[in-house]
């Protein structure tokens, strides 16, 4: 295998053309990687959670890059050219949404869902993207932690996908959220928001070449969920400064919860 990429929390190896192995690290980070801590067991828990979630989505005929598990800490996946944007789907107002919209109360429920796009750039602190249909060549970037205005304007970038593809990604993202929301609800857990990424499938794999599919991982780093008692079961507790034993317990609980789907 050849290493073709390494991020803050995972390593990607090419197994053969079109197929990669994604291996999780026992590391947790916050602040765009400015702070990180070793976390024994996290690599196993997030791998199990991701495999269970992608298995659930595949059962609902949602195309993802996930193929199958590869041991306790990794999985095999279709190789993708990742789109350098994050898609955030929100059922409730929380996090940076409140900073951009200070008139909205924490916990306000959205129906229909709210979907936002963010440009993955640590130096720019992952700014929010404004996709304007009348300007097909450029997107506008604004600071993610303040109201969108001329004062928070950062600049422009070239588009990463077409307007039609943006519509497809948004519809697919909402569908993914609804499937996961219902499955978690049946476990007594409420999904508040979800951050996901998409990629274009690579290489000579027939008719699916360059198709946009759900990629990367989905785990407690990717969403905010709460149990029936209002306990936060995501990386949010680490962001808030909880001790590592509590954070470990959260990842273990979510791993065991998703095992109930028997994927």
Give a written overview of the molecule.
With 263 residues, the chain is of the alpha+beta class. Helices cover 25% and strands 35% of the residues. The strands form 3 sheets. Strands 8, 9, 10, 11, 12, 13, 14, 15 and 16 form a 9-stranded antiparallel sheet that branches. The chain has a 5-stranded antiparallel sheet with strand order 1-2-3-7-6, with helices on one face. Helix 1 runs parallel beside helix 5. It is globular and about 50 Å long.
Write the layout of secondary structure elements.
Layout: E1 2-6, E2 10-16, E3 19-24, E4 27-30, E5 35-38, H1 42-59, E6 66-69, E7 74-78, E8 80-82, E9 85-92, H2 96-100, E10 109-119, E11 128-130, E12 138-142, E13 153-158, H3 163-185, E14 189-201, E15 212-215, E16 223-227, H4 236-239, H5 244-258
Antiparallel strand pairs: 1-2, 2-3, 3-7, 4-5, 6-7, 8-14, 9-10, 9-14, 10-11, 11-12, 12-13, 14-15, 14-16
Helix pairs in contact: 1-5
């Amino acid at each position: 295998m050849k290493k073709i990429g390494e991020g803050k929390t995972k390593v990607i190896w090419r197994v053969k053309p079109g197929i990669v192995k994604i291996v999780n690290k026992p590391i947790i980070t916050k602040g765009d990687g400015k702070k990180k801590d070793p976390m024994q067991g996290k690599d196993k828990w997030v791998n199990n959670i991701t495999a269970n979630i992608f298995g659930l989505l595949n059962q609902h005929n949602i195309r993802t890059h996930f193929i199958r598990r590869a041991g306790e800490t990794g999985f095999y996946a279709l190789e993708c050219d990742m789109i350098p944007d994050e898609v955030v789907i929100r059922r409730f107002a929380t996090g940076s949404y409140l900073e951009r919209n200070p008139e909205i109360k924490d916990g306000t429920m959205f129906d229909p869902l709210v979907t936002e796009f963010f440009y993955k750039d640590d130096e720019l602190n992952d700014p929010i993207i404004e996709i304007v249909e009348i300007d097909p060549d450029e997107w506008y970037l604004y600071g993610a932690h303040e109201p969108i205005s001329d004062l928070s304007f950062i600049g422009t970038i070239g588009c990463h996908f077409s307007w039609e593809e943006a519509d497809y990604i948004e519809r697919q993202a909402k569908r993914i959220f609804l499937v996961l929301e219902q499955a978690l609800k049946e476990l007594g857990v409420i999904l508040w928001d979800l951050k996901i990424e998409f990629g274009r499938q690579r290489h000579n794999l027939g008719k699916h070449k360059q198709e946009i599919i759900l990629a990367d991982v989905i785990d407690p780093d990717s969403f905010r969920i709460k149990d029936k008692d209002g306990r936060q079961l995501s990386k949010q507790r680490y962001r808030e400064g909880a001790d590592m034993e509590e954070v470990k317990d959260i990842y273990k609980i979510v791993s065991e919860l998703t095992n109930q789907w028997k994927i």
